[in-house]
Amino acid sequence: RPVHQSVHTNPLTTLRSQIYVMRTPVLSPPSRPRCSSPSMRAATESASRRALLSLCSALLATPTPSPAAAAAAAAAARGLQTFDIAASDLDRRSFRGMQLSNGLRVLLCSDPEAGKAAASMNVAVGSMSNPVEWPGLAHFCEHMLFLGTKRFPGEGEFERFIAANAGSNNAFTGSEETNYFFSVNGDALPGALTRFADFFTAPLFSESGTTREVDAIDAEHAKNLQSDFWRSDAVLRLRARPDHPYSRFFTGNRQTLRGGDADARAALFAFHRAFYRAPQMALAVAGPQSLDALQRLVQANFGALPPGPAPPASAAYDALPPPFDTQPEPPVATVLVPVREQRSVTVTWCLPVEDPDEWWRAKPDSTVVSLLSSRAQGGLTQLLKAKGLASSVDGSIDEFTRSFVVLTAYIGLTPQGLQRWPEVVSALFSYLALLREEGVPPHVYAEERRMRELAFAFAEPAPPSSFVQSASGNLFLFPPREWLRGPLLAGEGAEPLVRSILEGLTPQAAVVKLTARELAPLATRVEPVYSASYGEMPIGREVAAWSASPRLDGLAVPPPNRFIPTDLSIKALSIKARGASTAQGGGGGAARRVKPALLLNTDSVRLHFLQDERFGRPKAFAFVSLRTPQLYESAAAAAQAELYAALLSDALQDVTYQAARAGLSAGASVGWQGLSLSL
302-337, pLDDT tens digit by residue? Predict the structure, then answer.
């Protein structure tokens, strides 16, 4: 889902941002810039010195639970429900599900081998719940929770404690959720949870912080003004129904938040009071502590969260028609002039979700996206690339709510493809018609379910920080027993849902957007928030033609994937058992040294082999290094080597794509030492 990752103005913000950005997907909205000007550096250094003076007090501060907190913990214990969690047989961790008496959903994860601990709170309210008169309020509230609580009023206190314990923290605001998360050394989890819990029970929303944090939000907005990601998103929302919250400006700026004045502060209190209630919140906690110890920490700190009744925030708009339903009359396409050089056509549909639980369980959207993105023989990508019209074809779910999904087919165009873009879109609708008429083969569903089953069965434990952030958002979507495997597994019942989706992917319901600098003469309008140049052009004749797109040679339903594994038995059981017994018999408990065996050593070839004796998963890795200095002996040779690696990947695209769908990978790269292959 599109989310807005936050920027905060506390002393240690820059460090936190850099840590977080390292694990942020490339296509996420860009992070905040580093502190660069001399005046900003001086201010940051001064603030950091002040922060360092507080580290000892932060480390030594062990808050004493108040009588009210103790009473809340006792009440939480009386109304506590616990649940068994279905986990992989190979997962070394232990889990427990809970629901406190106030309605808070909780997932506990105990991992004695983990040195770190982490927690994430997901609140089921996001930017689509912004009041009409307060664009950006949900994002503003997310920022402000970091700036002091009644028990810990210092604006930088939480971040000082986290940094003093080798941790990191951040938050993001999505359309229907806001997620807060942190990680620390394992022994610092109690103090971190106490401070974290106060975000949701007793935020200050101080006058000084409110005024200042608006500047931080405005700075985020300013750096997004030249981002093609945000500009494209804003232009798309112009096509939405004006009475739907999806059409509004989400992230906010100084103007929409009125400079953080007294009215803005009152709006923050009202928003937090209305939506930050335990039944609409979900917490995931992971650490080296036992499950019982983690449970006591959660009950002591989060039992005081305000209870319900609290209807879902989405109830305010779930009954509205989807934000995009049909083309205007006469039909038009949007044209957008990008900041960076690019050429693309996107075709977007908005589909109603009748039963979200059924969608989350069967995952029909995943099947449709994989069909649109297929690089296998018979797919749209191979056809358009062979004609020289496109460089890539990808499907994506841009928004998934309880009432609608936004699905997009993105096609990267060549210069020739831009000139012949109606033909490109016609090929897309021809492919969709083929899937409707012939039907999606049963093996496509079987392969999807099989690979998801294997991904769950043989998953390797994620770091605590990654685990809690992902898990907390899933606690609303599945029954407790399925909190771990529900997001991964695909249940039965996808076939009728996929058919229904394909029936809705028509030219009449599509929002078509062309992006290229060459379209500047048609871009006669300016989007009001990001000042993006855009325009519209009639496509009535094209829509009529796409509705009767001819069957194209080269398009076909996906063939069976020959790489889907069937035999997952471990072949080296005897070696594995012998290695385990050897390790147990080692003197003094020292870890046994793992060293590859040199199987072949000649003038031209060296072959090393390492037998896994620990993890017990049906995986193997091969690395081949072809050593030669010739690839980088000149600039021309280096350029030719890079082109060779790219052409090799392109030539093997069919086979490597199918392998990747089956959990395998292959790659080729060049460097100063030569050509490297990995499998």
Answer: 999 999 877 889 999 999 999 997 777 899 999 999
Q: What is the C-alpha to C-alpha distance for residues 252 and 534, in angstroms, rounded to an integer?
A: 22
Q: How many helices (H) and strands (E) does the chain have?
A: 23, 20
d(CA 295, CA 471): 17
* Residue 480 token pair: 């407790």
Residue linked to tokens 């069967």:
362
Query: Quick one: 437 exposed, middle or buried, by C-beta within 10 A (0-12, 13-18, 19+)?
Result: exposed
List strands edge to edge, sheet with 511-515: 390-400, 404-413, 344-352, 511-515, 332-336, 533-538, 525-526
pLDDT at res. 2: 40
The rounded distance, in Å, linking the Cα atoms of 185 and 167 is 7
What pLDDT does residue 310 have? 75
Q: In what helix (H) or strand (E) does residue 432 lie, and over which residues does it extend?
A: helix 421-438
Helices (H), 485-572: 494-504, 540-546
**633, burial (CB in 10 Å: exposed 0-12, middle 13-18, buried 19+):** exposed
Residue type, position 34, single letter: R
Give CA separation, 315 vs 128, 244, 275, 406, in Å: 11, 13, 12, 19
Q: Do residues 251 and 139 make contact, with C-beta atoms less than 8 angstroms apart?
A: yes
Of the chain, the end-to-end C-alpha distance in Å amounts to 31
Q: Residue 413: is its pLDDT beyond 70?
A: yes
Q: Which residues contact 263 (CB under 8 A, 6 or more apart)?
A: none
User: How confident is the model at residue 569, as a pLDDT?
Assistant: 84
Is the pLDDT higher at 572 or at 44? 572
Burial of 121 (0-12, 13-18, 19+ CB in 10 A): buried
| Contact (Cβ atoms closer than 8 angstroms) between residue 283 and residue 105 | yes
pLDDT score of 595:
85
Phi-psi region of 167 (alpha: psi -120 to 50; beta: other; left: phi over 0): beta
Q: Could you tell me which of 494, 472, 497 has the C-alpha nearest to residue 483?
A: 472
pTM assigned to the model: 0.84
What is d(CA 233, CA 168) in angstroms, rounded to the nearest whole number?
Answer: 29
104: phi then psi, degrees, rounded to nearest 5 = -70, 125
What are the angstrom distances between the C-alpha of 677 and each of 622, 642, 645, 668, 674? Answer: 8, 14, 10, 5, 10
Q: What sign for the dihedral angle of Cα 123, 317, 514, 422?
A: positive
Instruction: Identify residue 410 by its one-letter amino acid code.
Output: Y
Q: Is the pLDDT of residue 12 over 70?
A: no
* pLDDT of 247 above 80: yes
Which pair of tokens denotes residue 549?
């797109």
Cα-atom radius of gyration of the chain, to the nearest Å? 27
Angle formed at CA 640 by CA 634 and CA 642, multiple of 5 degrees = 105
Torsion angles phi and psi, residue 597, rounded to 5 = -90, 140
Closest CA to 313 of 485, 178, 151: 178
Cα–Cα distance measured from residue 628 to residue 625, given in angstroms and rounded to the nearest whole number:
9
What digits encode the pLDDT tens for the residues 284-302? 999 999 999 999 999 999 9
pLDDT in tens, 538-548: 999 999 999 99
Dist CA 303 CA 19 (whole Å)? 31
Is residue 100 a contact partner of residue 217, using CB atoms and an 8 Å limit? no
Alpha carbon 480 to chain centroid, angstroms: 22
Which pLDDT tens digit goes with each residue over 205-228? 999 999 999 999 999 999 999 999
